[in-house]
Amino acid sequence: MKQVLTIVALIAGILILTAAMMMKSNGQTPQPVVKPASQAGRFYEGDPQRLCQEVDSFLALHAGKQKLSHVAALIVPHAGYYFSGRVAASAYASLSRQSQYKRIFLLGPSHYEWLDGASVDDEHDSYATPLGLVKVDRETALKLQEEDSVFFYTPKAHDREHCLEVQLPFLQRCLDEVPPIVPIIISTDDFSKLERMAKVLKPYLNEENLFIISSDFSHYPSYEDAYKVDSLTGKAVESCDINQFLATLEKNANLGIPKLSTSACGELGIATLMLMTDKRYQMKHLMYQNSGDADSHDRSRVVGYHAFALVKNADSAMFELTDQEKTLLKTIAYESIEGSLNGKSIKPIPQLADYPVLSKKCGAFVTLHRDGKLRGCIGHFGEDVPLHKIVALMARAAAFEDPRFRPVRSDELSSLDIEISVLTPMRRIQSLDEFELHRHGIFIKKGSRSGTYLPHVADEVNWTKEEFVSSCSHDKAGLGWDGWRDAELYVYEAIVF
Predict the structure, then answer these.
(1) Distance CA 269, CA 186 (A)
(2) Whole-angstrom Cα distance, residue 170 to residue 151?
(3) How far apart are CA 250 and CA 91, in angstroms?
(4) What integer is the mean pLDDT of 227-242?
């Protein structure tokens, strides 16, 4: 019977492909590919009106709670709404209805297929629920796969999976407009692959995007044991420390708790998120219950549910560049070099009013490469010139004033690779405890002398924090190895693109 079904499926696939090719040859537009709502009527109500009432009733339980600002990610359960709906709603209720995200990354565990990586759905144009369609960002899904082979697409990983689909009705009811989603299913026992996933996804962890990590917590201990083990796991998640999280999962597994099969079924998605974060982010615990709180008939075997929100600290969220702003700055740099070659002055930016961050005064470096080789690099360290203008000026300086290279010629322009490093506003620190190696650049000032090291300098040498600062004090500021100790110290970050 299984062989017959396989043959039928193969024939159906061939017929669909043939039909699509015929439509294309006849000039017809192929019909959108929609993933059906496979969990409607199972994990949540299948009738649109009853589903609205179901979701809205859970959200109403949190109506009086304050909305969170700068939400970067949510950790949300994925059980049937009857059991975990109230906890899930606590996460979604933290979002403002007017929140405008460019895309939403959905990360969840594979319950049916072993992948040894991450399956990103690039096949479907949208996902269906009884409340309508949610678009899929297929372009980003494909881009992830192009960046690292740890991302790929396995249809079976998504066909029956519920952990992502159950999030959609909540998004449809709590946001005025649901942006396209990037559905990702993860399963692997290779930690290095999680690190690769985090490296690819980290640039998307910004104000433009929302990450939703789908995870239940303890599976199948007693009601009392669930509260015990979920409390330990919850504190580890709240720490946002990957080492503490993994150590806690291992410790829980060795506690000898009867029937405990896992402390977090979505641990891979949670771990990936933690690998993407740094001290600019804070994990806020929102709510905990287990299935025994929703249904007390049998508390000998329950599942735990936590909800968390990852928020960016207010001071860190003050300066950030969107993809559009980065693209515009690259255009400004290119046109500045091109204009100089044509004898033109730097032209004004007509859409500047739409991007107020580009008028902030900060430093920037422009680096030029050609055929993988450095072709020029000049920067301005200071907060006296608007960002859009300093990028235009430094682009020209890198192209024509770097004494290490001859000036850029017109025939080289199209082959130049432009890299921009925007320096965030400086912050005075009182001790090295406030300085983070690899994240912060250092600026040392004493009297008329000053010097700086960009953050990436730490990536090139194996120094401690004190060695990093001492070298900058000696080699850049001319203050000697210990001159920084009674100097003014400032930190900043570099947004490199």
Answers:
(1) 7
(2) 27
(3) 27
(4) 96
Residue 304, phi-psi category: left (phi > 0), alpha (psi -120 to 50), beta (remainder):
beta
How do 416-423 and 363-370 pair as beta strands?
Answer: antiparallel
- 409 vs 375: CA distance, rounded Å: 11
Winning range, highest mean pLDDT, from 117-126, 387-396, 448-457: 117-126
User: Are 50 and 169 contacting, i.e. CB atoms less than 8 angstroms apart?
Assistant: no
Distances (CA, A) of 469 to 236, 422, 459: 32, 21, 14
Q: Is 216's pLDDT higher than 70?
A: yes
Bridge partners of residue 133, in order along the sequence:
128
Model pTM score: 0.68
pLDDT digits (tens, 9 = 90+) for 386-431: 899 999 999 999 999 999 999 999 999 999 999 999 988 788 888 8
152 backbone dihedrals φ, ψ, rounded to 5°: -160, -175
List helix spans (H) across 150-281: 156-159, 168-174, 191-201, 223-239, 242-253, 267-276
Give the DSSP letter of residue 447. Answer: T
Q: In this predicted structure, what is the pLDDT of residue 453?
A: 87
Structure tokens at 432: 């090295």
Q: Are 44 and 51 in contact (CB under 8 A)?
A: yes
Q: To 10 degrees, what angle do helices 191-201 and 267-276 make? A: 50
The top-scoring range by mean pLDDT among 286-295, 356-365, 372-381 is: 286-295
| Cβ atoms 129, 40 nearer than 8 A | yes
Radius of gyration of the chain from its Cα atoms, rounded to whole angstroms: 26
Q: Rounded to the nearest 5°, which phi and psi values hold at 282?
A: -135, 135
Report the distance separating Cα 392 and Cα 389, nearest Å: 5
Return the ∠ at Cα 38 (arms to 53 and 42), rounded to 5°.
Answer: 50
Burial class (CB in 10 A: 0-12, 13-18, 19+), 259: middle
How far apart CA 312 and CA 295 sit, in angstroms, is: 36
| Stretch (H or E) spanning 142 | helix 138-147
Which pLDDT score, from 0 to 100, does residue 333 have? 92
